[in-house]
Amino acid sequence: MGVTRPAQADTQWPVTEFEIFEGLPWGSSNWYEANLGRKLGRHNLETKTPASVPLTAKLKKDMETYLHQVALKMQKLDLPPPYLEPVITRDDGTQAFRIYYFDFSKENNSDPADYAVASYACKDETAQRRIIKINASRLISAKTGGITDKGYVDLAHELFHTVQRGSQFYDANCEPPNWLTEGMAEAIGTDIAVELRRVKPAQLARWGLRHYYERLAVDGNANVNPARAHSYATSSFWRYLAELAHYRKSLIPSERWPQASVNSPRYGVDYKYVSRLLGSAETLPDQQEILDFLNNFLLADPAFTMRLSSIYPVFAATFANYGLERVIDDRDAKVMHNGWIKKAFGECPIITLDASNTVGRALLPLNRITGRCVHINIGAISTPTTIMDVSTLVPNKAIGAQLYLGTAGGKSVAQAIVKTAGAAGYTASWDPLVQAGDSFDLVFTNIADKPRATLLVDLTVQFSLPGSSNDQVSTPPQAIKKQKKKPKNQRAETDIKPDSPAQSSGSTTVSSSCDDEIPEQGCGWPASEFNGYCGPSMNIDLHTLPVGVANMSMMGSPLGLMNQVFNTVAGFMGPENDMSNMPDASEFDTLRVSIGIPLPNFGETPSYSNAAIHVEGGGWPNSGTYGPRDILSGSQTYFAPSGRVVLEEYSALLLRGSYEARLVALPTPYADKANFMELPVIGTLKGRFLIPRPCGKGIDEEEEVEIDRQRVMQDVMANFAPTNMLIPTDTTENTSPSQSSQTSGFACDCSCSGMRSSTAILDALESAPDAKTMSLAMCMLTCAAQYQQCDEEE
User: Fold this and answer.
1) Which helix (H) or strand (E) holds 549?
2) Which residues is 73 bridged to in the sheet?
3) Is 44 within 8 Å of 89 (Cβ atoms)?
4) Which 3 state secondary structure label does DSSP give 181?
5) For a Cys staple, 402 with which of 346, 448, 711, 742, CB 3.0–4.6 Å?
6) Are 48 and 20 in contact, with CB atoms under 8 Å apart?
7) 3-class secondary-structure state, position 791
């Protein structure tokens, strides 16, 4: 009986039975002879050849039964019938595919090292027979005479190859690259064997360990290691897509992404997406075309509706923890994990940060659509929780937009936030939340929204702990009475109380801004307070906030996701929307230090004795570093800035230094020389600061990298960080104090059900939230701890 290629739409297989034949297949290199042999039923003349491991009746039945079950399983996945010959008619009248069982050797044109092979032919190549051959000396155990675990995997693997050859995709593309052909077959073959026979494959092969620091699309069809091994091991990626298709069926956004662990009762795979992918008849001449096709397929397919750039970074981060959470091995779990992640992402640079070592750097070469790892150790730090800034310089916006960072295990993944850095180019950054004693791995990935546009990049990544420390040289006054207006020539009275202020514990938020505009008529620093603006200048802001408030910018996503969320929402809303309801951190009466200095150039580390330093809050009155001696003659007064600042490092990525402030009460008087030749110093404050990306600016709207805002809102907000989401709640509902809190006029539902409800609503968000809804972001201050507990409990 001849073989015809079935239609893709026909998922009812006409033949699902198999006959194992102990003997060699006939063959011919001549297309005419081959076709004639098919028509004449030459397979009926094939003779049996005894194998080294005899084909017993039991072994024959076991293999035939198993292949039948595999066929039914693949048919249930809507996969097309196999492109396989010959089909024989058995004595009972039923039809079956013949499978050849013999010892492979060079004499019969078979590689003795192979376990099983599915021979195939491209379109119009009729001389090559489309058959499955089993190597009796490899697939079967010589001791037991039964099928080995690998044998079960390989039988399903090879049968799936014939299914691939029966699809429209392979009809249009005869030889797609092995990372697709072999990787997909290895994933499906392994999972079917595990399901049907509970086999225990070798663990590294089971979960597809390969070098993901090399491109996802490993080169061509190389049939030698390591390219061949990587192609088969790309099964991990195709399996992840099946896991994702399964998890996406959940209505709860926090449960819609696969976990590194497979111990959850929710674990499962859904390979039906493969039938839809193989149903495409699009001709794809090269690797780039295939990657773009895969991207478009994932975006359009109902199981995913996401780009490859939304999936691959999460896959890579999740895959990093397979060695710890999936592999069953006798070795120490940590040793197994370290070996796994090293094999997958290369040598992981180790970055150790603490209160005295606040900056570290690592070199990370990133090929197209690849990943690299970094191991982070957090030692003793001044606060239990803080932000770790992760940033790198990139030459253009496009490269910045293709960078992603995830925590090993995949629970937090975020795209880089890209800002201009003047002549230095652009910065790409993230803001992970870290705690003292943390030890974890990060995975960087490199993929553009359009895969073929992904660029190779060598990164120097900086890791730093932003913040400042203050050293009160003299005790600040606890309060100062408001100055009353006095007649001219009368001294303003101040009532200074030397008692120690109430100390406010918390974290220090740090920021800076740079103004490089030069006025037409400059005045020359430090006379800015007297003559007006004198650019260029740099402003440094150090603000100690209560722990909860300081954590608002860190909370939810440990990778600065909220910055992306607010940036995206801002893009939705535009400047015409009123955001006045958003709470202002300046309302908190805690120490705030503002420093103004002339703007240096990158690479310079100057010292200043003319810095304008303002101090307020935390027990200090409104005070600053002016004078204390008047420098003008005549009746008017001018007290020049006199703060001291030393810069130790200044680049597009980092500003580090120290300051010293001798403070006088503000405002300074403007007249009456007799009384104001010198102002009283009310206290002295010294401190240090470290600020990442000191002069970074947001990219102008017209210069932004093209971003699908709806995708960011739905994929990033709802899927990557489910515990971030907030919704308005019914304030009349009875809720326990531990589960509800009032914030800025809104009730926050801090329960686990509230978290899930919030994420579900925001997952379905199709339009911009209004300013009132956005003000609910303050609910994160109250619900952070409760939401984290929900995540841990689940």
Assistant:
1) helix 547-550
2) none
3) no
4) helix
5) 448
6) no
7) helix
Stretches where the chain sits below pLDDT 70 are 1-10, 27-43, 45, 123-128, 220-227, 472-508, 517-535, 545-589, 671-676, 697-794
- What's the CA gap between 257 and 251, in Å, rounded? 12
d(C-alpha 666, C-alpha 639), whole Å: 11
Candidates 279, 281, 428; CA nearest to 364 is: 428
Among 453, 401, 402, 392, CA closest to 424: 392
DSSP, res 669: P
Label residue 742 exposed, middle or buried (CB < 10 Å: 0-12, 13-18, 19+): exposed
Query: Where do the DSSP E strands lie in 1-115?
Result: 18-22, 87-89, 95-102
Distances (CA, A) of 25 to 3, 37, 86: 16, 12, 10
Q: Are 548 and 784 in contact (CB under 8 A)?
A: yes
b or e along 201-217 (b: 16 or more beta carbons within 10 Å of the residue's beta carbon)? bebbbbbbbbbbbbbbb
Token readout for 535 is 């650019």
Which token pair is 340?
A: 């796994």
pLDDT at residue 780, rounded to an integer: 43
Dihedral over Cα of 497, 500, 505, 506: its sign: positive
* Whole-angstrom distance, CA of residue 640 vs CA of residue 743: 43
Give SS3 for 617: strand
Q: By C-alpha distance, which of 769, 447, 316, 793 is closest to 577?
A: 769
Closest CA to 252 of 688, 757, 599: 757
Q: How far apart are CA 441 and CA 524, in angstroms?
A: 49
Give residue 226's Cα distance to chain centre. 27
Q: How many residues does the chain have?
A: 794
Instruction: Let me know if 12 is exposed, middle or buried by CB neighbors in 10 A (0-12, 13-18, 19+).
Output: exposed
Q: Tokens at residue 536, please? A: 């260029």
Q: Is the peptide bond before 628 cis (omega within 30 degrees of 0)?
A: yes
Q: What's the pLDDT at 224?
A: 53
The 3-state DSSP class for residue 442 equals strand
Residue with token string 């035939």: 64
| Structure-token pair, residue 740 | 């509800």
> In angstroms, rounded to a whole number, what is the distance separating the alpha carbons of residues 663 and 613?
8
Q: What type of residue is 119?
A: S
Paired residues of 741 in beta bridges: 748
Quote the pLDDT of residue 741. 39
Question: What residue type is 307 in one-letter code?
Answer: R
